[in-house]
Specification:
The protein is mainly β. The protein has one domain (31-142). It has helices at 94-100, 132-142; strands at residues 17-18, 43-56, 59-72, 79-91, 107-114, 125-129. Strands 1, 2, 3, 4, 5 and 6 form a six-stranded antiparallel beta sheet that branches. It is globular.
């Protein structure tokens, strides 16, 4: 059936969390580069490892450190033959940071998207909630990782 949490519930029901997998964190300087733009529309499995504040060319930025699996094409539906894995990647974006900072140590599923553009600002990057079909696809892939 799928991975089950301690209570025997399907982890993809409800808040979109997957069961945490065991593993040690690696040196963050050796992480893979994750691009929000390149993954726009893709269904993602995100193993949220930590939060950090790093210096960028635009000033300090809060980031999520995670291992991310892109499991679909940009349409969010067509499953890739092999998931694209980004280890120890930094996920940028204020809204992404806000939505994932409470998920450290957990695994979530969602779709990379952009919110509504506000006057004078760029559209924010967001992790949109996956629908039931997408959650089922994510669980099937997650069971093979």
């Amino acid at each position: 059936m799928g991975k089950k949490d301690k209570a025997g519930e399907n982890p993809l029901k409800g808040d979109g969390e997957l069961k945490k997998k065991k593993g040690a964190l690696d040196d963050p300087s050796k992480g893979d580069k994750f691009s929000n733009e390149e993954n726009l529309g893709r269904l993602l499995i995100i193993e949220v490892e930590d939060t950090d504040n790093i210096a960028t060319e635009n000033g300090d930025a809060d980031v999520i450190k995670a291992t991310v699996y892109a499991i679909t094409e940009g349409d969010g539906k067509t499953v890739l033959d092999e998931p694209v894995k980004y280890e120890d990647a930094f996920l940028f974006g204020r809204v992404i940071f806000s939505s994932l900072k409470s998920k450290v140590g957990k695994t979530v599923v969602g779709v990379m998207a952009q919110g509504e553009k506000q006057k004078g600002k760029n559209a924010p990057w967001i992790i949109k909630q996956a629908d039931e079909k997408q959650k089922a696809k994510a669980q099937k892939v997650y069971d093979t990782l």
